Amino acid sequence: MDTPLVIDKGVTICPPLTAIQADWMKDLLENRDKLRSLIDQYGSPINIHSTVPFVENYKEYVSTLQTHRLDHKIFYARKANKCLAFVKAAHENGFCVDTASYNELKQCLDLGMDGSRLVLTAAIKTEQLIRLAIENGVLIILDNVDEIEVVSKIARELETAAPIGIRVSGFEVNGEKLYSRFGFDIDETKTVVFNHIKSNSSLIFQGFHFHLNGYSIEQRAVALAAVAELSDVFAAHGMDTKFIDIGGGLLMNYLQSGEQWQYFIDTLKSAVSGEADPVTFQNNGLGFQMIDGELKGELATYPYYNESPRDRFLDKVLSYTVGGQAVAKMLADRGIALHLEPGRSLLDQTGITLAEVIYRKRDSQGNLLVGLNMNRTQLCSSSADYLLDPVYLPAENNMANNDPVGVYFVGAYCLEQDLILKRKIAIPHYPQVGDLVCFLNTAGYMMHFYETEAHQFNLSTNLILHADDAISLDDVHKV
Ligand SMILES: *Cc1c(COP(=O)(O)O)cnc(C)c1O
User: Fold this and answer.
1) I need a surface site. Which of 40, 109, 327, 408 has the fewest CB within 10 A?
2) How far is Cα 405 from Cα 437, in angstroms, rounded to an integer?
3) Confidence check: pLDDT of 5 > 50
4) The whole model's pTM is what?
């Protein structure tokens, strides 16, 4: 089994992308025996989480909002991770939670969260879900006229009035209208929507909501200014805006070095252009491609490196001036609270994913494939690849082997494209069956959002690291 395969010296691998690692991750990765025993106990892969950075990230947002003297509510966008530990930590530490389905809302209520600390932003709202929200006084963000009608119908049936916010889209930025399939067009909001809710005693208007695709600071600031103006139109008709919710999409930073990031992009482009050896599986361009001899497209991944992540990103949005005024001041002057719904960025540094090596082999092109006991849906977002180097953890009897090699990690689904990472990764030891691989900072979307159970594989196991260093199953496995 351990007959050494021929190792290519001087093999082209992908340039390094070194991930930022929280101290709890470093400590745990030192404890190989512990990790081995967790894989033995729970199988592969496992996700391990710490809620400590989650609460720290939250506090940073609070401090930025206080600096800008804004009344605020911070809703953790619960869809970004399945674990109940984060919902509990949110509950215990005074955060609010953004829910996007019946089960998400029900779980928060079952944990004892008050309806006033929840918001419902689900893209599809069934009558059952709307009823649950209204019965518990949960703010409902409305997206279309049919929703307005169902919500007011159910509120009337329950002989109550439902607190609502209006989701707005279609903002004009630099002369171009931002398209979104969500929400009411901002122009329509002043007319159609206004008329629908103005004289409707079963709805209590509370504020406006938007959530923009992408990560532009300017677009968020311009949208915020436009909604502040919209609130003036409503105020002129006696409808006061209590809050404006700017949704999520607050950037985070995964990588230690901007230079590494730029070098990676340059190398990828050279490889796709045919000027350098491929650094990705089958020379996948991750968004770049050659058309008629010219390099076209752009990197179709999350922007993994950022100089102003999380609270600093928020600060930039709030400090941004539109028409000569900082947007934070527009809200403060009007007595409007700022709501936000960060998901990914609150989960920064809270999770890792660990998997076991099952086989190594050379394919017909000479690539070294390393089969992991997991599949690509267990490390997957809408991003074309996860651009962080994993940490390779050789088994005890493989530590002494210092034979670096470039590999592709492949998974358990019967798909040619079931690659865990598309980049060719340099690992410091020639791999052996039973080694472990740790993917870092995976809690926000990467481990859960697209995870499926094809082939009847179990979903991965979610574990929580506690303050006393004990590690136990997350309660999501009991629901
Ligand atoms: C997905 C989503 C969020 C969270 O976005 P992040 O990028 O995880 O911060 C917040 N609000 C709404 C309405 C969303 O759809």
Assistant:
1) 40
2) 14
3) no
4) 0.95
